[in-house]
Design brief:
The complex is a heterodimer of chains A (292) and B (354).
Chain A lengths: L1 H31 L6 H17 L4 H24 L7 H23 L16 E2 L2 E2 L4 H23 L1 H11 L1 H6 L4 H27 L7 H14 L4 H21 L5 H15 L14
Antiparallel strand pairs in A: 1-2
Chain B lengths: L1 H6 L1 H23 L2 H26 L7 H18 L5 H23 L4 H14 L3 H4 L1 H4 L5 E2 L15 H25 L1 H11 L1 H6 L4 H27 L1 E2 L6 H14 L4 H24 L4 H4 L2 H16 L3 H22 L13
Antiparallel strand pairs in B: 1-2
The chains are: A mainly alpha (292), B mainly alpha (354).
């Protein structure tokens, strides 16, 4: 029973990191119908920049802010310079383009920061809380991880639902042509959307790095698990993405705890296939396809 | 003779691939040194797998980000069988790998037939990440992370004792590649090939004209996986060690890169793309080491150039290198033609952008 609680807490904590990635993917998917396979690599890159800042003696929080800010810029620049030209082309072009960005970032990172695996600092202790003599299966860093992702989601929700800017961004994603007629700068909204998504990705990178360590492909699996969560949730729904990602986190934690850590990714694949066999559009998607 | 060739695709392809086989035989025997033969073998292995992916993604419209995992099934089939029975002939290994991977492809295809676009991409991506973990867990069968060693095929005695093993493997691989491309070239031109394309272009119309869409998609997956299995088996002989580290996500991504750079949907594009994907790191690696850079930089220059080429290729040549060259030729020809015929004929209608 105690083990079960430990696995559950671990699963939720990891699941929240996957949820940040999943939400970033869904934001970009809804706005531009593109899956950003470079999301993980971008997060890796911003985490390296944070590490450089911290290694130069700056406090953790400055590195944290720098990572989020570079994420915002990196996402916006990628959209404006690289993605914009392929937005109207066949979908596979965008897939290849983002894979190209992924490969490029994973090659440039070791050139700039060194290729060896590096440890990454935590802002608060990652040793479990102790109450009296019993230790709880929760560490301050786990609380911080869950809290940071929840706050980021809440802020994004408020921006999208309660501000004019959010309304414009939703309009640009929902119907670019009508939005343009209404005077919305659709291009700018898309750029901003990519920037915000990359900011969320950068947050995931900062939260994942202490556990998975920092090396050029450290976010590959996190991206795949986040993507799996987003697909299970249906790609269209932010709530679905978060639910799916936390579900993936829990499932992976149970599989690696009870069966073997090697098999966790296989467990993720099996769950994805099972869900898609039952609902090919994911759990939270209710769109109807054109059928004969 | 000419009309015969035009009418019978099978005869035309047969003569073409026979000629190709002779040219390759001469090149590998008299022109290439053993290092070139080694690299050409890699190109051929890549091309076999990329051709399968071309049928699936280019012709049938199903995106697979997990073809490296299918190659891995082929490679492990050969390696495990060889560990149990080292004396079995190579042809049997190749066939066993084709069959086992074809069955795996059928399973993935049945699961994937209901999935579209990013859903299928995500499922195959998850497969590419998940499958390489299996050998580590079942180390007693698959040799764990160290992998299984595979001895390269020995040349038959009648070729003489000094016959280079690299050249023998190059012959086998190129023969396999020529046969694969012959079969696929005919398949693509057949009624089955037309069904593949129809499902890609308009699923609703395909269904209305009586095509079983799901069955067509599963068939495309089986054909594609069989190619990946053959390539994986040859890959095991070429690397001589089959371990999970040989089948990373990068392998799947570079296969997709090869078919896109070469020009999506064309078998010759798959060859061109495989050539680029194999030789780009070889050339850039040599260039980088000649500059005396630190190892952190030099080791990653090929990968960086690879990324840049991908991005530039997509931005500048959206139809692949082959398509890019074709459109340049077309543009030059049209410019020359319109000068001559200016004012006589209305401009030819623009081909619709893809």
């Amino acid at each position: 029973m105690r083990l079960f609680v430990i696995y559950t807490v671990d699963g939720i904590t990891n699941g929240m990191v996957y949820a940040a990635v999943a939400l970033a993917l869904v934001m970009i998917w809804r706005a531009t119908r593109i899956i950003n396979y470079a999301q993980g690599a971008m997060a890796m890159f911003t985490t390296y920049i944070a590490l450089v800042v911290i290694r130069h003696g700056a406090p953790y929080w400055l590195g944290f802010l720098v990572a989020l800010a570079t994420g915002l810029v990196l996402g916006a620049v990628t959209e404006r310079l690289l993605v914009r030209p392929v937005e109207s082309r066949p979908p596979l072009n965008a897939v290849i383009l983002s894979l190209g960005v992924l490969i490029l970032l994973e090659a440039v990172a070791p050139m700039l920061f060194g290729g060896q695996t590096q440890s990454f600092p935590v802002p608060v202790s990652n040793i479990d809380f102790v109450v009296g003599t019993t230790s709880l299966p929760v560490s301050p860093f786990a609380v911080f991880t869950v809290g940071a992702v929840l706050i980021a989601m809440l802020l994004l929700f408020l921006v999208f639902q309660r501000t004019t800017l959010g309304l414009r961004m939703r309009a640009a994603a929902f119907n670019p042509e009508i939005a343009r007629i209404l005077g919305i700068r659709v291009g700018r909204m898309l750029t901003l959307g990519w920037g915000l998504a990359a900011l969320l990705g950068a947050l995931a990178g900062m939260l994942a790095a202490p556990a998975v360590y920092l090396y050029p492909s450290n976010m590959d699996e996190v991206l795949v698990f986040g993507f799996t969560g987003a697909i299970i949730g249906g790609l269209e729904s932010p709530v679905g993405a978060v639910t799916g990602a936390v579900g993936v986190g829990l499932a992976l934690s149970y599989v690696s705890g009870y069966i073997g850590a090697d098999l966790a990714p296989l467990g993720g694949f099996v769950i994805l296939i099972l869900v898609l066999m039952l609902r090919p559009q994911g759990l939270f998607s209710f769109g109807r396809q054109r059928q004969v | 003779m000419n009309s015969l060739l035009r009418r019978f695709t099978f005869v035309r392809h047969g003569l073409f691939f026979l000629g190709l086989a002779v040219v390759l035989l001469i090149l590998t025997s008299f022109v290439f040194d053993s290092y070139t033969n080694y690299n050409v073998t890699e190109v051929a292995i890549f091309a076999i797998s990329a051709a399968g992916l071309t049928v699936l993604t280019g012709i049938n419209g199903q995106v697979s980000l997990g073809h490296g995992a299918l190659m891995m099934i082929g490679a492990y089939t050969t390696s495990v069988l060889l560990t149990w029975h080292p004396d079995l002939p190579l042809v049997l290994m190749l066939i066993a790998s084709i069959v086992s991977t074809g069955i795996a492809g059928a399973i993935v295809g049945i699961a994937g037939a209901r999935l579209r676009g990013p859903y299928l991409a995500g499922a195959t991506l998850a497969l590419a990440v998940a499958l390489p973990q299996v050998p580590s867990h079942f180390a007693s069968v698959f040799g764990g992370n160290q992998g299984l060693s595979v001895s390269p095929p020995t040349p038959p005695a009648f070729l003489g004792t000094s016959f280079a093993p690299e050249q023998w493997l190059a012959w086998i691989t190129l023969a396999a590649a020529v046969i694969t491309f012959f079969v696929l070239a005919n398949l693509v031109r057949s009624a089955t090939g037309r069904r593949f394309r129809m499902v890609r272009d308009n699923e609703v119309a395909a269904r209305l004209s009586g095509i079983d869409v799901a069955r067509t998609q599963v068939l495309a997956f089986v054909v594609s996986a069989a190619c990946a299995g053959l390539a994986g088996s040859l890959f095991a002989y070429w690397v001589t060690v089959t371990s999970p580290s040989g089948f990373t996500l990068n392998l799947s991504l570079s296969l997709l890169t090869a078919i896109v750079i070469g020009g999506l949907g064309s078998l010759s594009g798959a060859v061109l793309g495989s050539f680029i994907v194999v030789y780009l790191p070889v050339w850039t690696g040599g260039f980088a080491s000649s500059l005396n850079l630190s190892s952190n930089i030099a080791n990653n220059v090929p990968l960086a150039i690879y990324g840049v080429v991908l991005i530039v290729a997509i931005l500048v040549f959206p139809r692949g290198v082959a398509g890019g060259v074709a459109s340049i030729v077309h543009g030059v020809r049209r410019a020359a033609g319109s000068n001559r015929r200016a004012g006589v004929l209305p401009a030819a209608p623009q081909a619709p952008a893809q």
